[in-house]
Amino acid sequence: MTNNKLKIKANNLNVYYGEKQALFNVNLDIHSKEVTALIGPSGCGKSTFIRCINRMNDVIDICKIEGSIKIDGNEIIDKDVDVVSLREKVGMVFQKPNPFPKSIYDNISYGPSIHGLAEKKVDMDIIVENSLKKAALWNEVKDRLHEAGTGLSGGQQQRLCIARAISVNPEVILMDEPCSALDPIATAKIEELIDELKKSYTIVIVTHSMSQAVRVSQRTGFFHLGKIIEVDTTEKIFKNPGNKMTQDYITGRFG
Amino acid sequence: MNKEKRLKKRYNAEKRFRLYGLTSVMMAIFFVIFLINVIFSKGSSAFLKTTIDLEVNFNLETLDLDNNPTQKNLEDAEYYDLAIDSILNVYSVTGLKEEKALINLFSPDYEYEIRNFLIKNPDFINKKTILKLTASDDIDQLHKGNYPRHLPEDRRRINNFQLKIYDSLLEQNKIDKIFNAYLFKKGDSRNPELAGIGGALVGSFFTIVITLLLSFPIAIFASIYLEEFAPKNKITDFIEININNLAAVPSIVFGLLGLGILLGTFHLPRSTPLVAGITLALMTLPRIIIPCRASLKAVPPSIREGALAIGASKVQSVMHHVVPLAIPGTLSGTIIGLAQALGETAPLILIGMVAFVVDIPSIPTDPSASLPVQVYLWSEQAERGFVEKTSATIMVLLSFLITLNFIAVYLRQKFERKW
Fold it and tell me: Does the domain formed by A6-250 have CATH 3.30.420.40?
């Protein structure tokens, strides 16, 4: 199942929030077109790490990043990098569904319109339809595209956010605990969707659920106290972890 | 104490608390009703004025005009003789003293009222017609029942002879009460029956427009910058504290500022809506910035993150997503701020808006009155007619304030979004 084509390479990544160091010398390789799960106890730096990949940490004034992250060999931890085009390439789905308080259509069309991906209304209609189809939401909302996105159920809202992320045709999708606010049925739908999406996108998912990591990911990284303890194929991590701490965590002895 | 006793005590405390709350609400309602009642009972009569029917014969000879006069001839003609002749026909009087008493029943503007009628209706040349001329303040108040006619003659401004004329005119149905258009059309006057809030309305309008144009854009951009873009450091904190302090500065201090800087240093024209607008804009700025920032802050950060994560720039995320969500709060904050500015008196007194201005301003650099200052000015006058005028002005001012507040509430409820 796993392939060896490298998509993202983090090298000696150190992140500080003011005085506090959140990540210590993180080295992590993420492979193209597969799902990498990041697990670990709360506050271990998983979210900090994925927020470095699309530079969302720039929003936080006191955050300082050192080291290197390369996507397809291009350095992104650099002041000169254009974060707008980086985020076009690296989409993100958040913990809590955060659709814009606009219509379903406008939620999807916003990204393509600011990046100029569709010149005509017809092109935009196609993008919206395809994005919603890819996010497995089209059949549920095709008759009410102009109703508020916030009127959908939690699971639908999260799929709307995924559709919004893929509307600008990214290469990587970052997911920060996308199912933590959802019920098991909605979670199952999102997991199915992730399985489908990995054919076209590289996905990095932060999760607190071991079983979810097992179900959706091909590779798993275990974080603890800002350090990466172990990265390997999901199968190996969960069947035969190389590190004692990993084993303790996945068997529920701490976390 | 056993359990039942304690439970009973808790229920009693609850009942007492509800009673306190209810009492305070009741008292507030009572005061509001009392206030409105006083203002309405005093002020409503100002919307009507007393008139006396006068038969006027627009004879060209009396007016010293040739046949077929032009509009210009009509405007330049002398109407005094015609007016006096017509008035002296109302009641048979002998001697200068009685003539004067009769003429004094009319407001001093009788000459202009006759003139204006003819200029507007030139068809009445060489015809007779009955005009309703404005009665003097004393007759007006007498007819409205506010005049103490039971006082002995030497303590009244209306003498017995005038009362006799009034009674006889009343019997002939020549005295009437009609809608007082002067109240809205005319500027200030020394004669209450001729005084109006037209000048104050226009002055207040100019003032509030200037205040809005100056304070709204500055406040909006200041709040957006402070809330969304400014680095969180000591300078920003310092500015924030000072904005909050400025909102609490007494308005008269802003009046002093306007007096010292706008009038003193820049020599802008005194007692004009321009200066008033700038002064009130300074006062209103912090009062708009604070609710604006609050409504920007109320937009959940997840909306900003969602926009940024899809590749919007910072400005795009703010302008496309945050600001539209903050608009209802911003607008209602602005309207409330403007309503406060509209009712502000103290700073206007300092920049000279207490001047007695008869003319209605046509541009913001004309000397002018404003509604709250007009209330203040008239409340100091001795004539009875100004008492009802004062209350009527308060009614007009209050109705504007209430309208503004309703608009604010409406905007907030209409555009408020939930997520």
Answer: no
CA–CA distance, A77 with A69 (Å, rounded to integer): 6
d(CA B247, nearest CA chain A) in Å = 29
In this prediction the ipTM stands at: 0.90
Question: Does the beta-carbon distance from A56 to B306 stay under 8 Å?
Answer: no
**How crowded is the C-beta side of B75, counted as CA atoms within 13 Å?**
4
State pLDDT tens for residues B241-298.
999 999 999 999 999 999 999 999 999 998 899 999 999 999 999 999 999 999 999 9
Q: What's the one-letter identity of residue B90?
A: V
- pLDDT category of residue B323 using cuts at 50, 70 and 90: very high
Judged by CB atoms closer than 8 Å, whether chains meet at A115 and B321 is answered as no
What values do phi and psi take at A190, rounded to 5?
-65, -40
Q: What distance separates the 2 farthest-apart alpha carbons in chain B?
A: 107
DSSP per-residue codes, A50-88? HHHHTTGGGGSTTEEEEEEEEETTEE-SSTTS-HHHHHH
Residue B320 forms contact with A (CB below 8 Å): yes
In the structure, how many helices (H) and strands (E) does chain A have?
10, 10
Which domains does chain B carry? 45-180 (no CATH), 198-415 (1.10.3720.10)
Distance in angstroms between the alpha carbons of the first and the last residue of chain B: 48
Minimal-distance CA residue of chain B relative to A151: B419
Count the Cβ atoms, other than its own, within 10 Å of residue A94.
21
Q: What is the DSSP letter of B361?
A: P
CB nearest to A101's CB, from B231, B316, B417: B417
Give the domain ranges of chain A: 6-250
**Predicted TM-score (pTM) above 0.90:** no
Cα of A250 to nearest chain B Cα, Å: 31
Residue among B310, B316, B321 minimizing CB distance to A165: B310
Is A81 part of the contact surface with chain B (CB cutoff 8 Å)?
A: no
Quick one: tokens of A216? 């959706």
